[in-house]
UniProtKB/TrEMBL annotation:
This is Uncharacterized protein.
């Protein structure tokens, strides 16, 4: 999958979950197009988007971070069965 397709999917997810205003959508899209999704998420506090949308995106970022940390911990544990 290309970066553009991934960004489009993530932008749609943000739109569905955070319900941004048209101004927020424009700022988010321009930031993601210019800097990439990772940089946008890492620096979200710096963007002039509504606090409600910003809070929802930060919560989403935290969930994704937790999932990735869980995956990296799981992969380092080995693959044996328990029980």
């Amino acid at each position: 999958m290309t970066i553009d397709k991934e960004n489009t999917k993530l932008l749609k997810a943000i739109e569905e979950l955070a319900n941004p205003t048209s101004k927020d959508k424009t700022i988010i899209k321009e930031a993601v197009d210019s800097f990439g999704i990772n940089t946008f998420l890492l620096n979200i506090e710096e963007y002039d988007i509504s606090m409600t949308v910003k809070d929802k995106i930060i919560a989403l970022r935290n969930v994704v971070d937790a999932l990735y940390k869980g995956e990296s911990n799981d992969s380092s544990q080995g693959g044996g069965q328990s029980g």
